[in-house]
Hints:
The chain is of the alpha/beta class. The protein has helices at 12-28, 42-45, 62-69, 128-137, 150-158, 169-174, 208-214, 220-235, 279-292, 295-307, and strands at residues 4-8, 34-38, 75-79, 91-95, 104-108, 122-124, 142-144, 164-168, 183-184, 199-204, 244-251, 254-262, 269-276. The strands form 3 sheets. A 5-stranded mixed β-sheet has the order 2-1-3-10-4, sandwiched between helices. The chain has a 5-stranded mixed β-sheet with strand order 7-6-8-5-9, with helices on both faces. The protein has a 3-stranded antiparallel β-sheet with strand order 11-12-13. Pathway: Porphyrin-containing compound metabolism; protoporphyrin-IX biosynthesis; coproporphyrinogen-III from 5-aminolevulinate: step 2/4.
Amino acid sequence: xxxxxxGTRKSELAMTQTKWVVNQLREAHPDLQxxxxxxxxxxxxxxxxxxxxxxxxxxxxxxxxxxxxxxxxDFAVHSMKDMPGEMPEGLVIGAIPPRENPxxxxxxxxxxxxxxxxxxxxxxxSSLRRQAQLLAIRPDLRVEPVRGNLGTRLQKMKDGEFxxxxxxxxxxxxxxxxxxIHDELSAEEMxxxxxxxxxxxxxxxxxxxxxxxxxxxxxxETGRAVRAERAFLQxxxxxxxxxxxxxxxxxxxxxQLTGLVGQPDGKKIIKGSLTGKDEQSVGQQLAEQLTxxxxxxxxxxxxxxxxx
Length: 308
């Protein structure tokens, strides 16, 4: 196969994920030559504003997608949860490797669980999805934004800026920092972001040679689950900045999807589940069911508040 160029963000986690994917590809294609191009995204540059206020959609992928379209790179490795519901024409997700732990976890200065955190504790998260679900369980807690890479956020907590922070377990696992986790939050406590724990290998739709090679690292069970979650997100025309959550599991031939839309203050959570054989239909139908229960109006109010 021709030599390839892979694009990635510069963060330690992004680099770790990309190198893992390249190693998996090389196991299947031992003669493969891959060089790496680091790309700075808008989400990496703007660190003093919450994700929801800087536009949300595509914050961590837009510049990388442009490099793909310009043919500066051949493929890119993204965290699936950073991918907007829609992507530019001419690009596709060529492979989705097996999913890491999809759940969120709590890291605390004093080793507490979520239930044990003292009243009024300050929790750091820039995710409206996490904030909504956290305050629904513990309305007594205070929530403030925390930005930066995993190491930066962890250090801010250790330095006393926060009593606790919420992070994706997958990132900590990939960085081999699992010992930092004090409380892994179940899907019942905190439904994950769409695609959380999964990676998206993105490439040009007409690159048949590369698409064929990528099949060696694709996991169809993860692919089906993620497609259901993304169909749910696409119906709301949302991105990772909105208080939308979804988690799917493949059980036999069926896909079981749970989805949620929340009010950022946690006072209203609209949640439901649906099971079916066609993942795209399951995602769309569940989103339509939640819309009938008021999810559309809730998200419109959130969007208006962010713009305002």
